[in-house]
């Protein structure tokens, strides 16, 4: 069974591909939706196409499915239309699947289940990554503010940090907000770091 | 009542989403007791699935797509209903500067003479270095049907003589820039964005192909709509007020600024405004050209879903072999346009209410008073550019006339 993953996020495609390979599927192709990707996909004659539900490329794909003679008269979405729970899970996860008509649903269901789990895992990973990125950015801002205090007030590092923290606590704000305010004020006053 | 009723509606970033955005931002939904949330999607497939699978209650939708989904032509079949049209017209065909060079040198003349322009376009196809690739937003898009109608007049078979490429409206300009397509027909502001970027010229507009062409509808799932009649009636009341607000020229500046927000259309207000005002920049670096009735949100009972308009769409689907000619299918197509729900919802309001639910399309040459149950109703010219008239009671003869050309 040939599975094609259409995705412009290379990372998510890899996460999904890894999962499918672990589950024993070995004919998996990745197609980024760029250039003449629809023609490429058509040549690959996939049995299942997995893609992001919100992908702008779905209209192009569906048009190909409507006019193509290369693919066996296609293709339904979400496998088993009677399985509302699965449809809901797929939509919540943002998975859309196009399946060649005639493929038995018992064969497709595990693929879709897996895609839903991996899409969800990817979304969580993305959220964690965003959080880590913003934590890192906060860290940098606080470091800059600390350096300003150390320089202008001639404080050692632990005291500079303690001053930021106590100011934040007194004002009921986050340390990073106080740090940002300090950096802004400093630059408005014409200071250099 | 305990707090506002939540209702969520999916939309695509297009100028004709305006009545929904005005309903939210100008308080019409809130006044009617709704907490309206708007969900932007990029592709029509996503909007369709959100509606069909119940992620939203309503959708901004291409009128032919609502019919196609109901007829089972676009993935999972689901009965949809359109009790309210969001607008008439508002789309434009933009072609690359290179392709447009083979047409009449005066861009205003192309718009004013769609018959001549269709023949010129047909000739330009042969002169082009490849089979022209024209972007359409969906197989079942209002403007794809208009493009087909316009070119069909000049003997062009779009399935044979053009490569029609489906892309969401917001990706058209990039596709044109990269040379993937030679032009596209889409709802505004995207053609104006392509002209502003210096990539294209507007060579035809929907409102000069069919003066009162059907464009987007507000679509619900039929079972949901039937089960929430009171809520639907109240919401259509809010939509009627929002549409009237959008149609008022005094509000166009403010409306353009609302639409320009990143969460809605996300393009500069200066690029959105011309379609609202009916003054379009057709070619980069020239003066804008006035095109009256370019886009209509409300006047002349524009929101009324004439069943004859659904049937015109059906006739075009038959013509282009997208659906077979069949009386049951014809009936189901007409039933998507729920003039009965519109009547029920807006009875007793000051919205003019047509006396009939079917009319001959394309027969009005000058503004004409028509029978109405409330308020004076004048319908403006609704002619097709080729002068053909669509009698919904005689689709067979209409189709025979089209194929005899």
Automatic annotation (TrEMBL), chain A:
It comes from the Bacteria. The keyword Cell wall biogenesis/degradation does not apply. The modification 4-aspartylphosphate is found at residue 52. Keywords: Phosphoprotein. GO terms for biological process: phosphorelay signal transduction system. Transmembrane segments: none annotated. SUPFAM superfamilies: CheY-like. One of its GO terms (molecular function) is RNA binding. PROSITE patterns: ANTAR, RESPONSE_REGULATORY. SMART domains: ANTAR, REC. Residues 122-183 form the ANTAR domain. It holds the Pfam family Response_reg. Residues 2-116 form the Response regulatory domain. This is Response regulator receiver and ANTAR domain protein. It comes from Rhizorhabdus histidinilytica.
Automatic annotation (TrEMBL), chain B:
Keywords: ATP-binding, Cell inner membrane, Cell membrane, Membrane, Nucleotide-binding, Transport. SUPFAM superfamilies: Periplasmic binding protein-like II. One of its GO terms (molecular function) is ATP binding. InterPro entries: NrtA/CpmA_ABC-bd_dom (IPR044527). Its main location: membrane. Transmembrane segments: none annotated. It is found in: Endomembrane system. It holds the Pfam family NMT1_2. This is NitT/TauT family transport system ATP-binding protein. It comes from Rhizorhabdus histidinilytica. The lineage of its organism: Bacteria, Pseudomonadati, Pseudomonadota, Alphaproteobacteria, Sphingomonadales.
């Amino acid at each position: 069974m040939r599975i094609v993953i259409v995705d412009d996020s290379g990372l998510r495609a890899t996460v999904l591909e890894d999962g499918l390979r672990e589950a024993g599927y070995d004919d998996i192709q990745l197609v980024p939706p760029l250039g003449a990707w629809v023609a490429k996909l058509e040549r690959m004659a996939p049995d299942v196409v997995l893609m992001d539900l919100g992908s702008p490329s779905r209209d192009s794909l569906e048009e190909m499915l409507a006019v193509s003679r290369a693919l066996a008269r296609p293709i339904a979405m979400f496998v088993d239309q009677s399985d509302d729970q699965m449809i809901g899970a797929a939509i919540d996860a943002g998975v859309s699947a196009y399946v060649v008509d005639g493929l038995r649903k018992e064969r497709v269901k595990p693929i879709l289940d897996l895609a839903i789990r991996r899409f969800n895992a990817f979304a969580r990973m993305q959220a964690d990554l965003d959080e880590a990125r913003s934590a890192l950015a906060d860290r940098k801002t606080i470091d800059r503010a600390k350096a300003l205090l150390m320089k202008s007030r001639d404080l050692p590092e632990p005291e500079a940090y303690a001053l930021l923290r106590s100011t934040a606590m007194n004002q009921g704000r986050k340390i990073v907000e106080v740090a940002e305010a300090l950096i802004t004020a400093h630059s408005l006053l014409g200071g250099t770091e | 009542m305990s707090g506002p009723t939540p209702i969520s509606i999916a939309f695509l970033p297009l100028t004709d989403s305006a009545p929904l955005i005005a309903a939210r931002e100008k308080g019409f939904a809130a006044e009617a007791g709704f907490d309206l949330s708007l969900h932007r999607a990029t592709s029509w497939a996503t909007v369709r699935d959100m509606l069909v699978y119940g992620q939203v209650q309503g959708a901004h939708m291409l009128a032919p797509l609502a019919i196609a989904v109901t007829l089972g032509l676009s993935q999972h079949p689901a009965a949809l209903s359109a009790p309210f049209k969001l607008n008439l017209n508002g789309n434009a065909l933009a072609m690359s500067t290179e392709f447009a060079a083979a047409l009449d040198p005066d861009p205003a003349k192309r718009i004013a003479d769609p018959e001549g322009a269709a023949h010129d376009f047909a000739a330009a196809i042969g002169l082009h270095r490849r089979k022209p690739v024209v972007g359409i937003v969906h197989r079942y898009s209002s403007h794809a049907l208009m493009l087909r109608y316009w070119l069909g007049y000049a003997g062009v078979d779009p399935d044979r003589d053009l490569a029609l490429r489906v892309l969401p409206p917001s990706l058209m300009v990039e596709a044109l820039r990269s040379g993937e397509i030679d032009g596209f027909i889409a709802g505004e502001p995207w053609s104006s964005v392509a002209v502003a970027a210096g990539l294209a010229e507007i060579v035809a507009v929907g409102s000069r192909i069919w003066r009162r062409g059907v464009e987007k509808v507000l679509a619900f799932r039929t079972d949901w709509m039937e089960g929430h009649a009171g809520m639907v009636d109240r919401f259509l009341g809010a939509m009627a007020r929002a549409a009237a607000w959008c149609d008022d020229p005094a509000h166009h500046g403010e409306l353009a600024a609302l639409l320009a927000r990143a969460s809605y259309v996300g393009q500069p207000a200066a690029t959105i405004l011309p379609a609202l005002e009916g003054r379009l920049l057709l070619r980069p670096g020239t003066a804008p050209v006035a095109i009256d009735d370019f886009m209509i949100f409300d006047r002349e009972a524009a929101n009324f879903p004439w069943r004859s308009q659904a049937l015109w769409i059906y006739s075009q689907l038959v013509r282009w072999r997208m659906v077979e000619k069949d009386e049951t299918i014809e009936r189901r197509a007409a039933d998507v346009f729920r003039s009965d729900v519109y009547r029920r919802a807006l009875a007793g309001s000051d919205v003019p209410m047509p006396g009939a639910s079917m009319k001959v399309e394309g027969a009005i040459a000058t503004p004409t008073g028509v029978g109405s149950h409330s308020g004076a109703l004048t319908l403006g010219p609704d002619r097709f550019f080729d002068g053909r008239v669509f009698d919904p009671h005689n689709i067979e003869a209409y189709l025979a006339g089209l194929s005899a050309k």
